[in-house]
């Protein structure tokens, strides 16, 4: 569980507890961090981007099932790249 702090219209802090592993309302991946749109939209979707930084286009927004599938594929690719990086680092291979 994490805590997000938002300000109400009087400038008072509002603390919201949330599960960082709960699925994002837009992409379906774990939210990780709260965003300006709330605790159920990940910061990437809040900025209209996939997790690799590519833009989510309007057509994809209109087809949530395709958006979620693409988001998942991008996430898998990023995980694969991250794992390859750590394996190389463990083996002391030259990284660049
Ligand atoms: Zn998202």
Q: Which structural category do the helix and sheet elements fall into?
A: alpha+beta
Attached small molecules: zinc ion
Percent helix? 25-40%
The total of beta strands comes to: 2
Largest beta-sheet details: 2 strands, antiparallel
Shape: globular
**Which range does the strand content fall in?**
5-15%
Uncertain spans, ≥5 residues at pLDDT below 50? none
Integer tally of domains: 1
The chain-level mean pLDDT equals 93
> How are strands sequenced across the largest beta sheet?
1-2
The ordered H/E elements are EEHHH
Number of helices: 3
> How far apart lie the N and C ends?
37 Å
Rg, alpha carbons: 17 Å
What does this structure look like?
The protein has one domain. A two-stranded antiparallel ribbon has the order 1-2. The model has no long low-confidence stretch (mean pLDDT 93). The longest helix is centred in the last third of the chain and has 27 residues. The protein contains three helices and two strands. With 96 residues, the chain is of the alpha+beta class. The structure holds zinc ion.
Write a concise keyword list for the protein shown above:
96 residues, alpha+beta, two-stranded antiparallel sheet, globular, binds zinc ion
How does the SSE layout of this entry go?
Layout: E1 2-7, E2 13-18, H1 43-46, H2 58-62, H3 64-90
Antiparallel strand pairs: 1-2
Zinc ion binds next to helix 1.
């Amino acid at each position: 569980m994490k805590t997000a702090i938002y300000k109400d219209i009087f400038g008072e802090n509002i603390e919201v507890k949330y599960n960082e592993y709960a699925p994002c309302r837009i992409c379906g991946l774990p939210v990780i961090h709260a965003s300006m749109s709330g605790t159920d939209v990940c910061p990437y979707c809040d900025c209209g981007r996939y997790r690799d930084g590519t833009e989510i286009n309007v057509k994809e927004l209109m087809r949530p099932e395709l958006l979620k599938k693409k988001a998942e594929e991008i996430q898998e690719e990023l995980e694969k790249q991250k794992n390859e990086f750590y394996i190389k680092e463990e083996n002391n291979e030259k990284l660049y």
